[in-house]
Amino acid sequence: MQKYDRILLKLSGESLQGTQKYGLSTEVLHSYAEQIRDAAASGVRIAVVIGGGNIFRGLTGAKRGFDRVKGDQMGMLATIINSLALQSALEDNGVKAKVLTSIRMEPVGEYYSKARALEYLDAGYVVIVGGGTSNPYFSTDSAAALRGIELETDVLLKGTRVDGVYTADPEKDPAAVKFDEISFDEVYARNLKIMDLTAFTLCRENRLPVIVFDMDTPGNLARVLAAEAIGTLVKP
Predict the structure, then answer these.
(1) Cis ω on the peptide bond leading into residue 236 (within 30° of 0)?
(2) Is residue 119 part of a domain?
(3) What CATH number should be reported for the domain holding residue 226?
């Protein structure tokens, strides 16, 4: 049973590098594209925001001598490269996709507006929004939260390499326990790091539920959309 009509899918840029240390893995891209294709075929309207950490991360660059504002702008451009790569992979899988950018960049992508994005979603396109919020000091998690709220999506699906939210980092603490569901208030009280605080607050104040799940396992997106108990639901 389809549970959601319109979703915001947040993808990790770092996940796009696969087993490489940098850049884009065509295998991961096509795995993501196939999962999105199947979800779109079920009638779900899908907006996507992708990070840029596989190419450049502004905060890391700032620690190495880059001006923070310029570093973040470079990171925004990295997200647009990833958006174009995903668009190409989707089109190769027979999916109509549009890239909208928060920074004017025609003809690379159309300038983002809520009205235009909704038009494309209603016409059956997967809408990929690149460029973050267009402002420095904001992460792509914040951009995903903002676009999810603007586009009135039912849920923000945070596809990562981890299969949910844990009491501690499961890669460092073997005793970490996974939550099936958790409230925004409990996440805040436990100081769990599911996304940056700005993004978290946006979702919390606008009552946009978040599901954290492992996107790298083929078929997991369909399982989330079918309301199977995978990942962790963070709820108002």
Answers:
(1) no
(2) yes
(3) 3.40.1160.10
pTM for the model stands at 0.94
The C-alpha atoms of residue 53 and residue 11 are separated, in whole angstroms, by: 11
**Residue 53 domain-assigned (yes or no):** yes
- Structural domain includes residue 135: yes
Give CA–CA dist 27/16, Å, rounded.
Answer: 9
Q: State which residues form the domain around 153.
A: 6-235
Rg (CA), the chain: 17
Tens digit of pLDDT for each residue in 97-120?
A: 999 999 999 999 999 999 999 999
Compute the distance between CA of residue 168 and CA of residue 173 in angstroms, rounded to an integer: 6
In a domain, 1, yes or no: no
- Assigned token pair, 25: 């893995």
Measure the CA–CA gap between 33 and 51, rounded to whole angstroms: 16
Q: What is the pLDDT of residues 198-231, one digit of tens each?
A: 999 999 999 999 999 999 999 999 999 998 989 9
Provide φ and ψ at 214, rounded to 5°.
-85, 105
222 Cβ contact partners less than 8 Å away, ≥ 6 residues apart: 35, 38, 39, 42
Residues forming beta bridges with residue 183, ordered by sequence position = 235
Domain count, the chain: 1
Residues with Cβ within 8 Å of 72's Cβ and at least 6 positions away in sequence, in order, are 58, 59, 132, 136, 137, 138
CA distances from 185 to 43, 182, 198, 207 (A): 33, 8, 15, 12
DSSP state at residue 17 = G
